Amino acid sequence: MTTIAKLLLALFILELFQPCQTLRGGNNLAPSYTRDALLALRAAGSFPPPNLPEDIRSTAPRRCLRRRGRRGGVRQRLRRRGNRPPLPSMILSNVRSLRRKMEELRIIATACFEYRLILLFYFVFYAFLAGMFCLTMWVMLQTLDENIPTYQDRVPSPGLVIRPHAADISFNRSDPTNYNQYTQHLHNFLQNYNDSVQERNDLCLVGEYTDQDAEPVKKVCQFKRSLLRQCSGLSDSSFGYAEGKPCIIIKMNRVIGLKPQGDPFINCTAKRNSLLQIRYFPSEGRLDKMFFPYYGKNTHADYVQPLVAVQLLLSKEDLNVEQTVECRVEGSNLRNNDERDKALGRVTFRVLVSE
């Protein structure tokens, strides 16, 4: 293909630069004259020269006239050529040689191969990183216990929470729809403490820790709902809200392995000048040590925390006045006065009862 194109190009160039003095007929060549010679003959009055052929003597001296322009000369030469078939015209600028095409294909193939190598490198690299990450995570998980956290130094003492779960308790005692949300919350919370449910659990020694380190399945000590008496919701389904003497249930957060020293109990005080009467259930608000320690939700699945219910005995003068109450766990080594963590060992809530 390349050789044929080069041959056609050479023939085309030779045709462009062929001499214009070729005679129309015969194989004899006409005598050639230069421009100065023709001018001298004309000045001497001997023009045309006597040795010109007869078929062109009657005409003026022929000159190779070529039109100026884009394709004038080519068309003129094609007309003089007569019936001779013209050379095929080729626009060489649009023809790419096979060698150039092969070179481009080689470059493309090389680039694709290099891209594949790059992709393969990054695939192997990130696969190695993912494998290293999975390996380190697996090694770390082998050092952890499923039941007991390895590091729990940041929770040496538990916090206190209240139910109903609201820091501000405000209601009108004359409108049951106004405090139904609180009583319904308490009923739902105490379902696991129903006597029928707690009777399935074990009776434990009062005042003694229930150590079960060697037991694969830990037993659960009973804490019956009836121990809360007036705040149990059994005798009074309104938990004292209808009388304007609401019950608040306090529980201590679970901490695995916690064994409080002493005899812990809940003590609540109102932030006001006069003393606010408060009733505790169970008596004196004690948290019995038989519910400690806690072994985690996997081995201690049915465990329930001990509860303390406090009933605010508000007088008629206390109505329509917001009461701020703070409850603390006392009588043990549990912290309750950390200024950086005000929820550690204590809880504060506000109660507003209106008529």
TrEMBL record:
One of its GO terms (molecular function) is ATPase activator activity. The chain crosses the membrane at residues 119-141. It is found in: Cell membrane; Membrane. It holds the Pfam family Na_K-ATPase. InterPro entries: Na/K_ATPase_sub_beta, Na/K_ATPase_sub_beta_sf. One of its GO terms (cellular component) is sodium:potassium-exchanging ATPase complex. One of its GO terms (biological process) is intracellular sodium ion homeostasis. Keywords: Cell membrane, Disulfide bond, Glycoprotein, Ion transport, Membrane, Potassium, Potassium transport, Signal, Signal-anchor, Sodium, Sodium transport, Sodium/potassium transport, Transmembrane, Transmembrane helix, Transport. This is the non-catalytic component of the active enzyme, which catalyzes the hydrolysis of ATP coupled with the exchange of Na(+) and K(+) ions across the plasma membrane. This is Sodium/potassium-transporting ATPase subunit beta. It comes from Gymnodraco acuticeps. The gene is LOC117556879.
